[in-house]
Write a structure and sequence with these properties.
Blueprint lengths: L22 E2 H7 L5 H9 L3 E3 L2 E2 L6 E2 L5 E3 L2 E3 L7 E6 L28 E2 L7 E8 L2 H8 L7 E8 L4 H9 L12 E7 L3 E8 L6 H8 L4 E9 L2 E2 L8 E3 L2 H12 L1
Parallel strand pairs: 9-13
Antiparallel strand pairs: 1-4, 2-3, 2-5, 5-6, 7-9, 7-15, 8-9, 10-12, 10-13, 11-12, 13-14
Helix pairs in contact: 1-2
Bound molecules: uracil.
Uracil (URA) binds next to α5.
Length: about 260
Amino acid sequence: MQGDCPRGVHKSTVPAKNESDGIRLNKYIAQAGIASRRRADDLIAYGKVRVNGKVVRELGTMIVPGDRVDVSGTPIAPIEQTVYLVLHKPAGVMTTMRDPQGRRTVVELLPKKLPRVVPVGRLDYDTAGVLLFTNDGHLANKLLHPKFGVDKTYRATIAGRLSPEDVRALNAGVDVGNYTAAGAKVRVVSVRAASSVVDVTIHEGRNRQVRDMFEALGHPVQTLVRLRFGPISLGDLGVGRTRELTPRELAALQRVAAQ
Ligand code: URA
């Protein structure tokens, strides 16, 4: 996990290799809007800056989450590390943080001692698969905004034999009753008389959309797994397990949100 940096550890004069090493004290002061980085260096050199109650004068001092910094006695709000996680949500778990009916919620599956994270959207109680969590509200809001229309791929096991007409209907956009879903990309995985398996990619995110699309075609969904959310794939992440996004995945997600 990011955030495993022990509290109070300062790698003085050692430049950060990456964000999980912390943030340089002058940058931290500048980001808080107290002074420019150069001026922050002066403040540090003059002995005006304390970290966890001790004056520091090393310009390369690194700050990690949990550190308390003050400048001339005025505390600076602590940094909260941004966290980006993907959970392989199991079926039979609520996406909400609390359930009045006492059902299992995703909170039970998240690592302990996280900053407060929120799910990026939701999956139905019975749907499994990719569910992102972050405390980066800015990114979460962008990813959920209909304007961005992030592609989401679901593997649906449906009752009955999927026909070529069904595929055409999915491609064209299915009327589910109260709205017409936008056209979906379809990859047929297997077709049998009793049930078929199909991957559908949609960019909308309406409540129970995939279930409603297949229901409207007369093929109720038996199981549903989200394989992909934008550039984030389930891969071999075990059911109920979480992992951090890789820097490459995060960059890809940020690119999607910036479009
Ligand atoms: N579509 C559904 O029907 N259910 C989900 O959980 C997500 C998309």
